[in-house]
Write a structure and sequence with these properties.
The structure is a single chain. This protein is of the alpha/beta class. The chain has one domain: Rhodanese-like domain (Oxidized Rhodanese, domain 1), CATH 3.40.250. Helix content is 35%, strand content 14%. Strands 1-7-6-2-3 form a 5-stranded parallel β-sheet. A two-stranded antiparallel sheet has the order 4-5. The radius of gyration is 14 Å and the shape is globular.
Amino acid sequence: MGQLSELLALARQRAETQGHPYSGDVTPAEAYALLQHAPGAKLVDVRTRAEWDWVGRVPGAIEIEWNQYPGSVRNPNFLAELKRQVDPECLVLFLCRSGVRSVGAASAAAEAGFTNACNILEGFEGDKDAHGHRGNIGGWRKAGLPWIQG
C-alpha cells in the first residue's frame, strides 16, 4: 500500500504544479498499476464512439463521451452518466486521446464532488510525432498496456 500512497502523492504534486483542481496526473503505466492494485479504481474513457470503434478500446473501461461525435459538441449528460456509473468516492482515472479532454473531464468531476479524480497524461495515443501522426510518442497504447481493436 505504501507504493500506491507514494504514486498518488506524486500524481497530486503534478496536478498541483499545473494548477489543476482534480486529485492527480498519472502516466499510463501508473494508471494501469492503480487499476490493478487500488481497490475499486475505475478507468473512464472520455473519447468519442468513433475513436473507440476505429482506434481501440481499453478492456473494462467505462465509456462516456466528453465531446459527442460527430460535431465535437460537449456531452450535456456527461456528469449525469458519470454519477450513474461511478461512485464519487472511488479513484477514477480519465483517459482521452492525448490527455487534453481528460483534463476537462477530471476537472468537471472534481467540481461535481468526485474526491479522487485523476487525469491520465499522454492519453490513449500520445502526442503527434514530427509527421503529425499519433501513436509513436507516449500514450496508453505505446506503453504496451491492454487494449483491443474491432
